[in-house]
Amino acid sequence: MKVALIGLGTTGRIVAEYLYKEQVLSLVLCRENSPDAGNDLGELLHRPYMGVAVETTANLEEKLNRYKPDIVIDFSSPAFLREHLSTLARCKVNVVTAVTSYSQMDIKRVKVLARKREIGVVIAPNITRGVNVLLVMAQIAAALQADYDFQVIDENHRNKKDSPSGTAEKIVAAIKRGLEKADGEQLIPVHSIRAGDITGRHKVLACGQYDQIEITHTAFSRTAYAEGAFKAAQFIYGRKGFYEMKDVYGLRKPSYAEERLHSDAVVSLAGSYA
């Protein structure tokens, strides 16, 4: 598996280090006017020569054909896929994007193009394993406690551009799915904090009349994002279609038949202890 990376911000540099250690990083891309272009990655990371070229996205198709990455991992901005998704599809390069500020129209376009051009795409604003577990727990809490008031707290570093984050929006969507199962509905406020160098913290508050539930995910290190990106790349390698991180981590909702089977098994087990 050969990976190209775009986006060398604070998190992107850690992702680059991680992918290099995994021996899959073959190319780093940067914007057309970037002063980083033409350097070896080692110079940018203040390391010895790494043998990984840093190229601009100009003439992207030629560079993809030259370096032949199987997957592009995107930690840049929505502009990259908006401009270059067709080129990536034409070159049969799969995509993992951790960008958190896509519009619904962007996502719809990605889904259509992935299907028509037969490439694989993972949209992953919630790229860490822990956040995906939080999403499942938030949905369950909402389904079981639909009469509680739900709110989301979204904390990130001062330079994060989107507010609320794409992850916070995913959490809200998970809560709403849970409420729908319980025939409930409510506005879910999101409180965004952008301060210091907070790596990432998301909290779900479920407040009842007499008690309160808190579900929190805290990223201690940006390596969590790098690990998630690598996991997503391994998943999408050789695959076609549109996926999310719940597919990568095996958290996709089971079919109705599987739910019934599980439910019947639980009832049977409970009966054996009656």
UniProtKB/TrEMBL annotation:
A family per Pfam: DapB_N
Domain Dihydrodipicolinate reductase C-terminal: start-end pairs = 130-248
The protein's Enzyme Commission number: 1.17.1.8
- Gene3D superfamilies, sorted: Dihydrodipicolinate Reductase, domain 2, NAD(P)-binding Rossmann-like Domain
Q: In which pathway does it act?
A: Amino-acid biosynthesis; L-lysine biosynthesis via DAP pathway; (S)-tetrahydrodipicolinate from L-aspartate: step 4/4
Give a GO molecular function annotation for the protein: 4-hydroxy-tetrahydrodipicolinate reductase
Q: Any one Gene Ontology biological process term?
A: lysine biosynthetic process via diaminopimelate
What cellular-component terms does GO give this entry?
A: cytosol
Q: What are the protein's UniProt keywords?
A: Amino-acid biosynthesis, Diaminopimelate biosynthesis, Lysine biosynthesis, NAD, NADP, Oxidoreductase
| Top EC category | oxidoreductase
InterPro entries tied to this protein: DapB_C, DapB_N, DHDPR_bac, NAD(P)-bd_dom_sf
- Lineage: superkingdom: Bacteria
Q: Where is the Dihydrodipicolinate reductase N-terminal domain?
A: 1-126
Q: Where is the signal peptide?
A: none
* Substrates-to-products reaction catalysed: (S)-2,3,4,5-tetrahydrodipicolinate + NADP(+) + H2O = (2S,4S)-4-hydroxy-2,3,4,5-tetrahydrodipicolinate + NADPH + H(+); (S)-2,3,4,5-tetrahydrodipicolinate + NAD(+) + H2O = (2S,4S)-4-hydroxy-2,3,4,5-tetrahydrodipicolinate + NADH + H(+)
Which family would the database say this protein is a member of?
A: Belongs to the DapB family.
In terms of PANTHER family, this protein maps to: 4-HYDROXY-TETRAHYDRODIPICOLINATE REDUCTASE 1, CHLOROPLASTIC-RELATED, DIHYDRODIPICOLINATE REDUCTASE
Spell out the protein name for this chain. Answer: 4-hydroxy-tetrahydrodipicolinate reductase
Q: Which organism is it from?
A: Sporomusa termitida
